Structure prediction request, 568 residues.
Amino acid sequence: MAFDGAFLHTVITELSAAVLSRVEKIYQPSKDELVIHLKKKDFSRKLHISARNGAARIGFTNAQFENPPSPPMFCMLARKMFSSSRLISVEQRELERVAELKFEAVNEMGDIVNPKIICEFIGGANNIILCDGEGKICDAVNRSDITAGRLIMPGAKYACPESRGKLNILTSGAQEVITQLKERGGEVSKALLDTLEGFSPLVCRELVFSALKETQADINSIDLNRLEKPLCECIAALNGNARYTALYENSVPKEFSFIDINQYECAYEKKYFSSAGEMLEAFYSERDNAARIKKQSGDVLKTVNNLLSRARRRKLLREKDLKATENRESLRIYGELIKANIHLIKSGDTSVKAQNFYDENLSEISIELDPALSPAANAAKYFKNYKKSCAAHSSLGSLIESDEREIDYLDSVLESIERAKTVSDISEIRQELVSAGYLKEKRSVKKMNSSLQIEQHTSLEGYRILVGHNNIQNDYITTRLAEKNDMWFHTKNIHGSHVVVKNGGGELSEETVLFAAGLAAKNSRAKDSSNVPVDYTPVKYVKKPAGAKAGMVVYTTNKTVFVTPWGE
Prediction:
């Protein structure tokens, strides 16, 4: 991905439209992101800054961000420094991957000051740095000490990253670039990368491909003047004629740039965008959301997996113990035979042979004895072990059933985490586990909002269709929102969403049944399968047993339809 200095230059040009706008709101959706709402007459946009590795960027966005229940300290400081301030400039030094946003604000003393937000997009050292008007660092999302090369700590003086002395193509021109290349040897794209400031390997290879129709060529084997046209076209793109291009493989975003990308020929699908911000938002939206969910769900997923593993081990051990109780009747028989033959046993004997009168063939068996115990005590020991084995057999059966219910429940929670689409979904799952006693509630975290965000659709007849994304939502739509004559859908013997068609007993067309069943299949563990069985029945036949965990129900009088999962 090529969010290089050259691409940043095109973004800076776009951001200049926000100059003189005021800061309305500031949010921090995650540790390494900042969202600033800028507003002026006939202008209202959100500026998104990300310092996350693999997705570092800056640009306007229309995306909706889920914010933490309470703002982080970095966000509170940013609000203190920049709320109601005015953006007066957006600058980039040469074509380096550093953007500087300068503001005009009034401090506590009533003086006008010029704090800055400095955004660095330097490989693994991405950062968002807040500086005061004198260039002193107030805070940064990624702090570092002097051993890391630069001191990024509150109170330190901000120093720009060291320049590598490469050529700025906008001030040098195509011919100077070619002259520099002639003094180098080796591969052309590598030489371009070492010569041009702010250019990524992708763009350098594309310049070579545009000139030579190949990406690998040696400087000494070609006419370097053939690079003049692609270099001039690149300069024109940077000066306002950018062709924002993104490459996709099976709908998965792979690369993007400010020039057309042809080096891969037909290997990828190409999409063009009218602005850098629009392309960045389309390219990163799904990836960013997935990254936030993964980050938020990490501890929950680990906890559920540990609980599930523990429950499965416990069930296996109990099944092993249960199997050991299958021969419990023989313990009673041994005790009876010892009593019947007690006159044959001497103190210190380790075994006794006795005729088994419980066997129709009256076979002779050998019974082990504890030489430290008397014959009567040996008989008593066998009777005691028999009673313990009977008690264990009785209790282990119900304990194993309890383990199976717990495994089934935790498996459903795991499936809900896998299907989570928003950070709110993860928060609801976390709250569910707190309510079930599996997690402790964090004091610093506010309780989940009572208004759940339920996915909704509309059938051909105009009926509302509700889809739960986790066990809490499943309970809510089935036991609270649904009426007894509404239709309820769920994949047969497969963990997934409860789906309710709010038809109130009205007739459902075959299309609506298939539509709702397809949603249930899509939002289940069988989402990647075909011909998935989905049960459906009126809600009045769906019951929640007393004491059942969230999302657990039983149902009767159902019909089954086989569908292929579909929908988003």
